[in-house]
Amino acid sequence: MRNYRQCNGMTRRQAIRVGALGAAGLTLGNYLQLAHAGEVRERGRATAAIFVELPGGPSHLDTFDLKPDAPTEIRGEFNPIATTVAGIQVSEHLPKLAAQADKFAILRGVTHTLGAHPLGQKFINTGNRPNAALEYPAYGSVVAKELPTPADLPAYVSIPRASQGPGYLGVKYSSLATNEAPRAGRPFNVRGITLGGGMTLKEFERRKGLLQDLDQRFAAIEQQDELLDGLDEFSRKAYRMVTSKRTRDAFDISQESDAFRGMFAEDSFSQSCLLAVRLIESGVRFVTLTLPGWDTHQENFVKLKEELLPKLDAGVAGLFAGLSAKGLLDSTAVMVTGEFGRTPKINNRSPGGGRDHYPRCMCMLLGGGPIRGGQVVGASDATAAAPAAEGIAPEDVAATFYHALGIDHQKEYQSSTGRPLMVVRDGKVLSQLVS
Predict the structure, then answer these.
(1) Is 431 part of any domain?
(2) Kindly report the CA angle at 409 between 403 and 415, in degrees rounded to 5?
(3) Separation between Cα atoms, residue 166 and residue 173, nearest integer Å
(4) Quick check: is 410 in a domain?
């Protein structure tokens, strides 16, 4: 049944729902207030998302697409282990994620052609092939535009910062960057939210008054400037946040119980995952997390075994377990990805060798919301050198991710020059992942 929209902006399905709720004492006004606050959502759609970026490009053969029967110069040093889902295996150095395998889907045979870090990151972080004449917005910027957020909360937070900006959507849809990651056992302050240097709210109000006087003097000049308009919106948002106890509490991971904090390791990435869960629970719509260091041209197996895989394993497993424990997994979509995979053939640049850039084949994880976990979608060939059949394009992943959030990836925006632009220029929703 098509979901026609009425002149008051409500869909037919929503109107029927209001009628049913009215019998239970909930008025149209109540419903619209709840909907604006994000408390009402269509069944099977997420209301928030977390994007975990792995800059550098993790090796798919050593994480989620092992080839134990391939020749030695391809298979590498790691062995596969079983997960909680029959028939699905991952690297032996991801035991905690293996125990959470029912909560996410593994995408294999994801493929593109951009083997340089900046271009690959732009492609994967937006779902649009980079264009020299146009900067596309990050997922979080689109979500910040599309999903309502309480006025005193940031819609989009990056920990510590995002590699992709708001593009043509403008500065008002940028992320609030923490600029550092939280550390276990230490207070976590975000510049502009926590009042530092002993400044009181009274002093802050006085300074804001002085700024408002200056703003009025320049109002005529600023009236037509989109950048300044965006910055002015940032200023208003920053003021609401800095004076909001709810926002300061949202960033205070020390308020979590000992039992819940115990689900996360003490490294900064795991603590960032803990903070992400708390922010989503508080009403933030989108959080970007970053775990760098995956450009393993040298010492691939040493770096993966001793540092990168243990951090990824503990952090992302804690993220899924934490969302589940708080009842947030069904309403929070999660994507975990680097910008490309790494070469099947091991190079000899260091003891044990390394792997080089390889966009032709890679893996991603998707979970939460309406995404069906506990499955593998797509496949690579016998040496993980290419998709076994039709590959999965980054645009398809983007379309699916937006679909999970109830955002039409074919919706058109307009650039500052009036040019119509789709959220995702190409791509189709992967029906195996969502209904």
Answers:
(1) no
(2) 150
(3) 6
(4) yes
The whole-angstrom separation of Cα 285 and Cα 156 is 6
Residue 413 lies in a domain: yes
Opening angle at CA 367, ends 380 and 150, nearest 5: 145
Tell whether 5 and 26 lie within a shared domain.
yes
Centre a 10 Å sphere on the Cβ of residue 393 and count the other Cβ atoms it contains: 18
Assess whether 150 and 280 both reside in one domain: yes
- In a domain, residue 22? The reply is yes
In a shared domain, residues 34 and 58: no
Looking at the structure, do residues 178 and 204 belong to the same domain, yes or no? no
CA–CA gap between residue 188 and residue 101 (Å, rounded): 31
Domain limits for position 35: 1-40
Task: Specify whether 125 is located in the same domain as 147.
Answer: yes
pTM to 2 decimal places: 0.84
pLDDT of residue 286: 98
Q: Give which of 44, 57, 89 is closest to 376, Cα–Cα.
A: 89
Number of domains comprising the chain? 3
Q: Are residues 143 and 269 in the same domain?
A: yes
Both 134 and 222 in one domain: the answer is no
Residue 108: give its domain's CATH number: 3.40.720
Predicted local confidence at residue 385, as pLDDT: 98
Return averaged pLDDT per consecutive 10 residues of the chain, 435 residues in all. Answer: 39 42 42 44 79 98 98 97 98 98 98 98 98 95 96 94 95 92 84 56 56 55 51 63 82 94 97 98 98 98 98 98 98 98 96 96 98 98 97 98 98 90 96 91
Cβ atoms of 126 and 167 within 8 Å: the answer is yes
Six token digits for residue 402? 């937006």
Residues 140 and 117 in one domain: yes
